[in-house]
């Protein structure tokens, strides 16, 4: 179980720590900070040290690092850390210009309105494209419930075999899930996460977007960059919110590029090229190309940028998960039922 929690700011300082079982020295965070310095924001969420496991998330430039003494399902800890951050965000509603405003839980529930659909299934693509057989996927089923009385719900799936490493909301009857592979529960009111889970890496998952990339060195101080983005196996769904972050090595001085879609900028300090594409036009695939300046005397053999890809696809679950039916018992009225599938890129990285 979780022994300690450390919260680290963007400068690498531990400004808050909490210990439950035993006090663990904050020096254990050095393993995390070392990985951060080596990989930037692309940090493995699970870091094994000689005596501990560090499980972390990053939100708003702040790192939340949980320390465990033994192996534990990482999804459980990651979900807990996200809940901690969501709880902190309630401070915006509880204080008005520094003065206590809303402190009752019922009032806070009214202030934070849930979305106007009954079910939201959010599938988050994780992993790296160098994995060709399968990609581990971190998914969740989010609910918005506005039902009177005490309805008893059952949610079944066409292919429940896809579930792996499942974390349940307390309202779910675990024994029935174990026996029948369906979700039986009496839901709380409002917006909540019903389950979080992994899609097994043994399942075949098609990446719904591709990036063709080429970085060719012309001279010792000049190179040409060419990137093209396109949809792949999206079943005709529109790929939206497409953004690319190209993490350049330190020897790159500047980028002078031309994009046929969207806008780009290069930060010479962080060495990150941002390309905000938006929606992919099927008739004219997004492309960006141009020259890249390299510092003189650099070892060009070590120039190997990586690309972080962000996108959203509505009404598509690339995991293949499908809802079979939702039934309600214990109440006589007929409820409105809705399911929305969303695929979002989480940690999807391409190595050039």
Automatic annotation (TrEMBL):
Main location: membrane
Name of the protein in its database record: MHD domain-containing protein
Annotated SUPFAM superfamilies: Second domain of Mu2 adaptin subunit (ap50) of ap2 adaptor, SNARE-like
GO terms under cellular component: clathrin adaptor complex; endomembrane system
Alphabetically ordered keywords of this record: Membrane, Protein transport, Transport
Localization of this protein: Endomembrane system
Organism whose genome encodes this protein: Rhamnusium bicolor
Family note: Belongs to the adaptor complexes medium subunit family.
Pfam families: Adap_comp_sub (PF00928)
InterPro entries, A to Z: Adaptor_comp_med_subunit, AP2_Mu_C_sf, Clathrin_mu, Clathrin_mu_CS, Longin-like_dom_sf, MHD
Domain MHD: 104-351
Gene Ontology biological-process annotations: intracellular protein transport; vesicle-mediated transport
């Amino acid at each position: 179980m979780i022994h300690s929690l450390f919260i680290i700011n963007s400068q690498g300082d531990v400004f808050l720590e909490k210990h439950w079982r035993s006090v663990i020295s904050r020096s254990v965070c050095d393993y995390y900070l070392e990985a951060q310095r080596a990989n930037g924001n692309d940090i493995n969420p699970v870091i094994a040290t000689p005596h501990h496991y560090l499980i972390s998330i990053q939100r708003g430039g702040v790192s939340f690092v949980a320390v465990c003494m033994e192996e534990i399902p990482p999804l459980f800890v990651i979900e807990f850390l996200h809940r901690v951050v969501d709880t902190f965000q309630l401070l915006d509603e509880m204080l008005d210009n520094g003065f206590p405003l809303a402190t009752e839980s019922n009032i806070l529930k009214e202030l934070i309105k849930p979305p106007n659909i009954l079910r939201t299934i959010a599938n988050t693509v994780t992993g790296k494209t160098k994995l060709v057989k399968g990609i581990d996927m971190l998914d969740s089923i989010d609910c918005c419930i506005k039902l009177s009385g005490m309805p008893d719900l059952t949610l079944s799936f066409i292919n429940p075999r896809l579930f792996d490493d499942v974390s349940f909301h307390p309202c779910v009857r675990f024994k029935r899930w174990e026996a029948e592979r369906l979700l039986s529960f009496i839901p709380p009111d409002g917006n909540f996460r019903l389950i979080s889970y992994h899609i097994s890496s043994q399942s075949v998952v098609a990446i719904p977007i591709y990036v063709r990339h080429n970085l060719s060195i012309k001279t010792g101080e000049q190179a040409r960059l060419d990137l093209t983005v396109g949809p792949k196996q999206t079943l005709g769904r529109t790929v939206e919110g497409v953004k690319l972050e190209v993490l350049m090595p330190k020897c790159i001085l500047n980028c002078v590029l031309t994009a046929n879609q969207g806008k780009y900028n290069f930060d010479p300090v962080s060495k990150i090229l941002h390309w905000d594409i938006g929606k992919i036009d099927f008739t004219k695939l997004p492309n960006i190309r141009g020259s890249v300046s390299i510092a003189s005397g650099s070892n060009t053999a070590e120039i190997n940028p990586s690309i972080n890809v962000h996108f959203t696809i509505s009404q598509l679950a690339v995991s293949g998960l499908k809802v079979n039916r939702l039934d309600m018992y214990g109440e006589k009225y007929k409820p409105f039922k809705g399911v929305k599938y969303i695929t979002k890129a989480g940690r999807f990285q391409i190595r050039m």
